[in-house]
Design brief:
Layout: H1 14-21, H2 71-75, E1 85-89, H3 99-114, E2 118-122, H4 128-140, E3 145-149, H5 154-160, E4 168-172, E5 190-195, H6 197-211, E6 215-220, H7 225-245, E7 252-257, H8 265-276, E8 281-285, H9 290-300, E9 303-308, E10 318-324, H10 326-339, E11 352-355, E12 362-363, H11 378-389, E13 408-411
Parallel strand pairs: 1-2, 1-3, 3-4, 4-5, 5-11, 6-7, 6-8, 7-13, 8-9, 9-10
Antiparallel strand pairs: 10-12
Helix pairs in contact: 3-10, 4-5, 6-7, 8-9
C-alpha cells in the first residue's frame, strides 16, 4: 500500500495533509520529518482501576497549565474524555521527543485539521492488565478509534477486538496476540502498521562509519521487536561500511539493553564508562532514555544517534537520527478511516502493512540543520538510500538471533 493520499480524502484539509506528506511517509523527497517546534510536556491521562461506563474520570489529566506558550492553540480539539480518537501509550512519557510524541503529533494534527475531538491515555504501570484497563477507559469514554502506540497493547487488543466490534483500533508496531504471545486472527475493526526499523538503523550505522567513526555504542530500551530491528540494522550498517572501507578489524560496538525507556542512573553510568573508554557515538534507542546518555555525552564530549524522529533540535550532540514515519502514517491511517465512513476500508480492515524506505517512510534527516556530517554529503546518503529502495542492499530483520557480522561487538547483560 502506498502512503500517498488517495482521491477519497476529505477535501477541506487535503492541503494540510499534502504539506505533511512532503516531509515524511509518501513524500516526494528524502526530506526530514521534524516534530512541531512547540513541544510542551503534558501529564498523561491515567486509567482508573475499574473501567465502567459510569466511571469517574476526574483523574484524567489535562494539558499542564504551566506550559509556556498558547496551550489551547497547541492542543486544538483535545478533550480530557470523550474524544472520537483516543491515543493510548504504554507506561512512559507522552512528550518524549520521540516515538510517543510522534504518535501524538499525528493524532493531534489530523484531529485539528478535520475538526475531530481527541484524547490520550497512559498506563500507570507496565502490565498487560493495566494496558487493557487503559483501552477500556477509552472505550467507555466513547472513543470511536483507538491508536495503540507500541506492542505493549497486543494482548489487550487481542482480548477486546471481538468484544467491541464497533470500536476500531490502529495498532502501531503491534498486532493482536493471546496471553502466550501467539498471533491471533485480526478482526476487521483492527488495522496494524509496522515499520522497517532495520533499514533506518542500517542507514545510521553505515553513514556514521563513512564519516570516520570506529567505536560505537547501542543502548536499547526494552527488547521489543522494533528496538531489536533498529539494533540489528545498526550493526549490519556499521559492518557493511567497515567492509567497504577495509577497516573491519578496527571497528567495535558496545551493545546493551537497559530494560527501560526512561532515563536512569544506570544508563548514565554505563554510557559515561563507554565514552570515557573510547566510545565515540551511542545510538540511544528508546523513549526518553536518551536524556541519560546526553548527560554523559555533555560530560565526556561524546555524540548520539537519535531514534524514531529527527532529534537534532534537542542538542548539537545528535549527529543524526534513525527516523521512521510514525506521525505521517498515523495521519494517513486516520484519514483513510474517516473517509471510509468511520470504518477501515476493505484494503486495511484486518490487515497488516509494513512501511520502509521503498514507501519513503525511513530516513536520516537532511533539512533544517539536521545534517551534521562533515565528511559525507546528503548526496552520499541519497545514493545509499536509492540502493536500499531498489532492493540492492540485503538487510536482515530477524530479531530471533543477532546478525552475522565481522566487526567486534561487546554484548552486555542488563548489569555490567
Amino acid at each position: 500500500m502506498s502512503l500517498n493520499p488517495n482521491p477519497r480524502k476529505l477535501i477541506f484539509f487535503c492541503s494540510i495533509i499534502s504539506l505533511l506528506l512532503c516531509q515524511g511517509c509518501g513524500s516526494r523527497s528524502g526530506a526530514t520529518n521534524p516534530t512541531d517546534t512547540a513541544s510542551p510536556d503534558a501529564a498523561a491521562v491515567s486509567a482508573t482501576s475499574d473501567a465502567t461506563p459510569s466511571q469517574d474520570t476526574s483523574e484524567s489529566a489535562s494539558p499542564d497549565s504551566t506550559i509556556p506558550g498558547n496551550e489551547k492553540d497547541y492542543y486544538g480539539n483535545y478533550q480530557e474524555t470523550g474524544g472520537e480518537v483516543a491515543l493510548v501509550i504504554c507506561y512512559s512519557n507522552l512528550m518524549d521527543n520521540g516515538y510517543n510524541q510522534a504518535a501524538f503529533e499525528g493524532t493531534k494534527t489530523y484531529a485539528c485539521a478535520a475538526g475531530v475531538s481527541y484524547s490520550y491515555y497512559s498506563a500507570s504501570k507496565d502490565t498487560d492488565e493495566e494496558y487493557e484497563k487503559v483501552l477500556l477507559t477509552a472505550i467507555n469514554n466513547k472513543a470511536k478509534l483507538i491508536v495503540c502506540a507500541s506492542s505493549h497493547f497486543d494482548q489487550a487488543v487481542g482480548n477486546l477486538q471481538d468484544l467491541y466490534p464497533n470500536v476500531h483500533f490502529l495498532m502501531l508496531d503491534g498486532r493482536p496476540r493471546d496471553a502466550s504471545g501467539k498471533e491471533l486472527p485480526i478482526s476487521s475493526n483492527v488495522h496494524c502498521i509496522f515499520y522497517h526499523e532495520e533499514e533506518a538503523g542500517y542507514l545510521a550505522g553505515y553513514m556514521t562509519v563513512l564519516e570516520g567513526y570506529t567505536t560505537f555504542g547501542f543502548v536499547g530500551g526494552e527488547q521489543l521487536p522494533p528496538v531489536q530491528r533498529y539494533g540489528a540494522g545498526y550493526l549490519q550498517g556499521i559492518d557493511a561500511a567497515a567492509k567497504d572501507l577495509g577497516i573491519s578489524n578496527k571497528v567495535t560496538v558496545n551493545y546493551w539493553y537497559a530494560d527501560t525507556f526512561y532515563p536512569s542512573k544506570e544508563i548514565e553510568e554505563v554510557s559515561t564508562k563507554w565514552y570515557r573508554t573510547g566510545t565515540q557515538i551511542i545510538f540511544a534507542c528508546g523513549g526518553s532514555l536518551y536524556e541519560s546518555i546526553l548527560a554523559s555525552a555533555d560530560a565526556c564530549n561524546g555524540l548520539l544517534i537519535g531514534v524514531d524522529v529527527d532529534q537534532s533540535s534537542i542538542s548539537e550532540r545528535f549527529l543524526t537520527s534513525a527516523a521512521k514515519g510514525v506521525k505521517d502514517s498515523v495521519i494517513i491511517a486516520l484519514d483513510d478511516y474517516f473517509a471510509s465512513g468511520d470504518v477501515w476500508p476493505e484494503e486495511l480492515a484486518g490487515e497488516v502493512v509494513s512501511y520502509g524506505a521503498e514507501k519513503k517512510c525511513i530516513e536520516l534527516p537532511t533539512l533544517n540543520g539536521a545534517w551534521r556530517f562533515k565528511n559525507v554529503t546528503p548526496d552520499d546518503y541519497l545514493q545509499l538510500l536509492s540502493r536500499m529502495k531498489a532492493g540492492e542492499i540485503e538487510i536482515s530483520s530477524d530479531v530471533t538471533s543477532l546478525p552475522e557480522i565481522s566487526i567486534q561487538v561487546n554484548y552486555y547483560n542488563n548489569k555490567e
